[in-house]
Amino acid sequence: MTTPGAVSSAEWVAAILFGLAVLHTFSTKLFANLAHNSSTHAGLWHWLAEIEVVFGVWALVLMVSLFALLGEQQAVAYLDSRNFTEPLFVFAIMVVAASRPILLTVQHAIDQLSKWLPVNRSHAVYWLCLGVLPLLGSFITEPAAMTLAALLLRDRFFTDQVSGRFRYATLGVLFVNISIGGTLTNFAAPPVLMVAASWNWSTVFMLTQFGWKAALAVVLNASLITLLLRRELQGLDMPAPLETSVPALVSGIHLAFLIGVIVFAHHPPVFMGLLLFFIGYTEAYKQHQSPLILKEALLVGFFLAGLVVLGGLQQWWLQDTLLGVNSQVLFFLATGLTAITDNAALTYLASLVEGTSAEFRYAIVAGAVTGGGLTVIANAPNPAGLSILKDRFTDSTVNPFKLLLAALPATAVAAAAFMVL
Fold it and tell me: Taking Cα atoms as reference points, which of 48, 329, 331, 372 lies closest to residue 188?
């Protein structure tokens, strides 16, 4: 990108394509209807109705545009400059965390904890999935917590017995709680990770400034939604827990792989190598496995990689938008922008601004995690949860407007926790 005119043209094109991609995420129902009504191109329309492919498709359009505007060398150089660690990590952690021995281990722990709560089993398990697993994301990372929580909710609660209201309300709270639940440490939430090193934010800092507030909001959100949906939960014939016949050694090996992927989350050659060994191990001991969710994880990785490519050329307008406003306005601005960008991209851009105040930094990160449940693209783990749960919605499609409305109450609780406490 050598000339100012060429750079300006590329940035304008990237902004327009980004806007079209966001519009596409809100239009997947339209493509689903086209798939049902068209026999000639039904496969194409069905593919475009998959929200996980949206940003990948528009990233391809962007790269074709950059080739035309800037030439091969600069277009390829831009692609080489992108950091794809996060999409690769989410792909790897989803595959490992969703494996049968890991899921059975977490399920057993949830069942044991549910016995200590003074409510019936369905209420207790539901509350733990939304009130404890999101906080666990501060230690096993948000994508892993999202994967486990979504799988347990799908298998235990997203049955034919529950209403659409139940499904959307649960999904909205899950997305919000996962987004704020990773802020007890400085390494588990993508938007925090983007700024922790630049701003010298330690885990102690996160726990004292963000974590305890987030924990209160998570517990309150889980409690309120359990209370709101108590009648449906009361009448729900919750499926029996899966049998737990996996040998302890096998579960231990799976946990070791999971920990290895988490520890080396910033080193793709290491965690991708561990993933390949993990796949080989599961092939060798198939009798203790369920099919790995490779397709679902690949689609989520594709979604996030497209977001990385498209988001890399949005700095020129995002950074100008963030500067020059007071901290309270910035908080709500960041919350809103997160819904149409990605909270990690937003905080990363903020970290590039020099001389920012402590109030600016708190407001931008608090707003970014608060808005992380409003849309599928707002937080990196959201596509992972969507890919697991979407088949339990009508036409296997999650309406983005209904998701937005469902997430607003929990978002308001999170906003109050970060701005008032």
Answer: 372
Distance CA 35, CA 62 (A): 25
Contact criterion met (CB below 8 Å) for 154 and 98: no
Per 3-state DSSP, the chain is made up of helix, strand and coil in percentages (nearest 5) of 80, 0, 20
Handedness of CA 417, 418, 419, 421 (dihedral sign): positive
Phi, psi angle pair for 245, to nearest 5°: -95, 5
DSSP annotation string for 170-239 = HHHHHHHHHHHHTTTSSSSSHHHHHHHHHHT--HHHHIIIIIHHHHHHHHHHHHHHHHHTHHHHHT--PP
Amino acid at residue number 114: S
Q: 């990160």: which residue's tokens?
A: 365
Amino acid making up residue 92:
A
* Residues 355-362: contacts with CB under 8 Å, at least 24 apart: 357/327, 359/327, 360/327, 360/330, 361/195, 361/199, 362/209, 362/327
Minimum mean pLDDT among 81-85, 203-207, 369-373: which range? Answer: 81-85
Distance CA(216)–CA(208), nearest Å, equals: 13
HSE-up (13 A, CA, CB side) for residue 53: 12
Q: Write the pLDDT tens digit of every residue in 253-312.
A: 999 999 999 999 889 999 999 999 999 999 998 888 888 988 888 988 898 898 889 888
